Amino acid sequence: KNALKPGMVRNLNLFEPRWLKMIDRVTNCRSYVEWDTNNPPQFGCVHCTNKFYSAISIDGSEARYADIIFERVGALATMVALEEGRRPVSGDRKVNVAI
Asked: Is the full-model pTM beyond 0.90?
């Protein structure tokens, strides 16, 4: 929605498998208390100025197609906090991350 600017803190509430997998890879599956405070996990962010999703058929199965426009310059996000939890109804894993 808005580009990540220096000094800005943003909270991410992640529960979709693709985002949980990304966070696990960035942190090497280490918990927040195991991070080296001099070298916390980081990842790149780019601002998406426009996106359009539509349903398409691939080999007879419905799939989603995304047409996405990114800005050419990104930012490096530093993770400052991470809290693991469970979604209240389903019990599925969720992760709250402050960057």
From this structure: no
